[in-house]
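ARCHIVE CARD
Drawer: 12
Card no.: 0347
Subject: one protein chain, sequence and derived structure
Cross-reference: see card 0346
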Amino acid sequence: MIHVEKVTKEFKKVVKEPGFKGSVKSLFNRKYEIVKAVDDVSFHVPKGEILGFIGANGAGKSTTIKMLTGILTPTEGNVEISGQIPFKNRKKYVKEIGVVFGQRTQLWWDLPLVETFSVLKQIYDVEEKDFKNRMGFLNEVLELEDFIKSPVRTLSLGQRMRADLAASMIHNPKVLFLDEPTIGLDVAVKNNIRKAITQINEQEKTTIILTTHDLNDIESLCKRIVMIDKGKIMYDGDLAQMKSQYGKYRDVNMSLFEYSDFEKFHFIEDLSLKDEDIKITKNKEKITVTFNTEKASVSDMLTYILGKTQVKDISVKDIDIEEIVCRMYGKEVSK
């Protein structure tokens, strides 16, 4: 459904010397440098897949999405979606895609939601019969009935997000781009949005590209992720494979009967570890030990802890995807 082959996007950036003198000089003798926002990116998405597309701010994620939606033209390389080149014949192309921006709405602020949908029906030339069937499906999945006659400006953030998702699906697009679809929502509403996206994908076989900083969205919705950094793809594969490849760390969470007994632990010396193999986080009475299972097994770690002191409560869990991504980027994550 989506083919991205060796895509590069370059921008011209004005370079000026500092200060007032530099500003004046740049008016008459401008110097430029070429910045590669996206550098030789390739990936393919089959029909019906939900792809998680993630990256830090400035990594090239948004630029890539803008090329996929036809807003930007690649400097080099090819993009083809559903047999079409996005930046050519855009009027025809946009009828086959849907886009949801979590921080921007495509709804008319003062119109009742039902009238907004009617306007979109006309814009996308949706037949009356198809529109009724579509609204029936979207009402069922997104539960719009309670607020469909309300003006958009009166909707809560969660209701508006569901309405935006419905608006992007009015014309039954083949590909859906979701940019931060759960931003700012509480946990319960986030879960409802995720369930709706999953149901739309399963029933409609809609191909979805999800960009988000909420890695719980990725874990809930995606089996495969593409991670981009400094314009280049640094990972493209199964989420489970990434966890297996990079998730060699485990967390031991424990509470001690005597908090002062923590001084008895000398993990690095006693277990022959290095500083990078272990991280200890204390939070009130809870202690978290994150360690490299290739250097110390879970059983060795538990035996060592239980042999040193009495433990009130103890549990072992895999580190979450946020920790894995931060380690891949070479950053620390706060517990």
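Annotation on reverse: The domain at 248-318 is CATH 3.30.70 (Alpha-Beta Plaits). The chain has two domains: 2-243, 248-318.
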